[in-house]
Design a protein that fits this description.
mainly alpha, Ferritin, 0% strand, globular
């Protein structure tokens, strides 16, 4: 997806977060939560693949077309790993992804880019925020699931590509910086709105975060700190682009 900015992390996983997969999945509620988690991530990955494939058709040069096509292929590989893991858990991956169609599709419907630069910003900001959120949750799951999530979030090269292209565009015409900064703020707001929607509708995921499936989740204060960290990483990404958060 995208890189992890160098800001404060959530710290060491809580006691018990490194439990083996076998013991963790003995709890049916935990299994439901993990299927939800992987289903949401899998749909995000297939959506990223679709967007990058579409963006590659709009690339201004052949070099950029090939770069985006390569990134799309990497995202599809991530999807395949998540799909296979869901099958291993005895879950239908397409059923697991179904609850996330509406919020993810709504985000994309409400944030259709008007040009090449906006599409790059969208992938960088939107995918970056999602990656940060899943990394936060990964601290509260079993080791096997955590390793799969972190591998799925490996940078496909998109971050460096976007930063390079956007900075060059700003150097060529500094006037675009203000417009792109406003666009990034809109993306951030819409992404948080859809994330809250998912949290409200998916009880299993919410329970995982707050420890409601007999796991050491966050308390409300910790959740507040998590959102503060998400905001910090967004600011770091914007600075990398040469934009104001």
């Amino acid at each position: 997806m995208t890189e992890k900015p160098a800001v404060s992390d959530p710290g060491d996983p809580p006691v018990g977060a490194s439990a083996s997969a076998a013991s963790a999945f003995a709890d049916p509620a935990y299994r439901v939560a993990i299927v939800d988690l992987l289903g949401g991530l899998a749909y995000s990955e297939i959506s990223a693949f679709e967007r990058l494939t579409e963006d590659s058709t709009k690339a201004p040069t052949l070099q950029e077309k090939v770069a985006l096509a390569s990134m799309a292929a990497a995202e599809f590989g991530h999807f395949e790993r998540l799909r296979d893991r869901l099958v291993d858990l005895g879950s239908d991956p397409f059923e697991a992804m179904q609850p996330f169609h509406a919020p993810v599709d709504a985000f994309h419907a409400h944030t259709a880019p008007s040009g090449w630069l906006e599409s790059l910003i969208k992938a960088y900001v939107g995918d970056g925020l999602a990656a940060d959120f899943y990394r936060e949750i990964a601290a509260y799951v079993d080791v096997d699931t955590r390793e799969l999530i972190l591998a799925t979030l490996d940078d496909t090269g998109h971050a460096e590509f976007v930063v390079d292209r956007v900075r060059k565009a700003i150097d060529d015409d500094p006037r675009v910086a203000g417009r792109l900064a406003l666009w990034a703020r809109r993306l951030m707001g819409e992404a948080l709105s859809q994330a809250q929607r998912v949290a409200a509708e998916r009880d299993a995921l919410t329970a995982l975060l707050v420890g409601g499936v007999d796991r050491p989740g966050m308390d409300l204060a910790a959740i507040g700190r998590m959102f503060s960290r998400l905001a910090e990483t967004h600011t770091v990404r914007m600075a990398a682009l040469g934009l104001q958060a």
